[in-house]
Amino acid sequence: GRGVPLTMANGAPDRKIKQVIAIMSGKGGVGKSLVTGLLAVSLRRQGQQVGILDGDITGPSIARMFGTKGQPTKSANGGIEPLRSKGGIKVVSMNMFLEKESDPVVWRGPMISSAIKQFYSDVDWGNLDYLLVDLPPGTSDAPMTVMQALPLDGVVIVSSPQMLATMIVMKCINMVQQLKGSIVGVVENMSYFETPKGERYEIFGSSNGAELVGMTGAPLLGTLPIDSALTTLCDAGRVEEYYAEHYEELAANFTNTLRI
Ligand code: ADP
To answer: How many domains, the chain?
Structure first.
């Protein structure tokens, strides 16, 4: 056999996770995984202990972004040892348990749910300030299943500046409310593109940050530009080498909001 059997551990290992926060988006492709990854990177730079649970079972992208290689092993506590990024972020993702990274996961809700529960309870996360959960995109069964399987402290909603995206955000809000969760804040990604000369282009339409705040009653944690350097670094598994002021601000707003 290959990999760590997911049913290995019995009983949660010693650990303390202070906050479990899910990152959600109304649809795919708005940068939910990227925001999860870069938020983790900035929090880690602040000196926080951070883990990422890639809850996007059928379309995992976190491991690739961080360039983590190999499979999780058995930890000293008899749990599953998460992989570690170069910067020391603990990462667990479904594709670490697959024969081939390109293998599809064709599971139904109950199996996804049990895998996620085990990613939470059987992984030896140790002590964490933040466990970030990258949810499957959208408001279908899959993100719902993941959200219900975990003891979430809050949800961050990622959106892009399009009418459509704003409408879709409403679905996110309704879902979080249905599940009696709380919204930590909203992030507007791909808000604009800035040329080296400092000219700004709002490629996907004008910002609807204010509207999002009105709709959610939660703060706008960040307004993030389109940066092609990001795509390149993510594809190369080197997201931790990226630095931009926007993301440090995002992390600061995030921690401040959670502190209140
Ligand atoms: P989602 O998780 O919402 O489906 P991803 O985080 O996978 O979306 O992002 C989709 C693609 O867009 C990825 O290739 C990612 O690198 C790219 N991307 C996301 N946000 C930005 C950004 N602000 N600037 C440049 N590329 C971005």
So the answer is: 1
Asked whether 29 lines ligand 1 (CB < 6 A), one says yes
pLDDT, tens only, 159-182: 998 766 778 888 999 999 999 999
Q: Look up the CATH number of the domain holding residue 222.
A: 3.40.50.300
- ipTM for the complex shown: 0.98
CB-based contacts of 44: which residues, under 8 Å, 6+ apart?
50, 87, 88, 89
185: in domain: yes
Establish whether residue 34 lines the binding site of ligand 1, counting it when its CB lies within 6 angstroms of any ligand atom. Answer: yes
**Owning domain of residue 142:** 16-259
In this predicted model, what pLDDT tens digit does every residue of 66-97 receive, in sequence order?
999 888 888 888 899 999 999 999 999 987 87
Q: In a mutational test of the pocket of ligand 1, which residue from 24, 25, 33, 34 has the highest number of ligand atoms less than 8 Å from its CB?
A: 34
The answer to whether residue 70 is domain-embedded is: yes
54 falls within a domain: yes
Sign (positive or negative) of CA dihedral 87, 116, 21, 155: positive
Any atom of ligand 1 within 6 Å of the Cβ of 227: yes
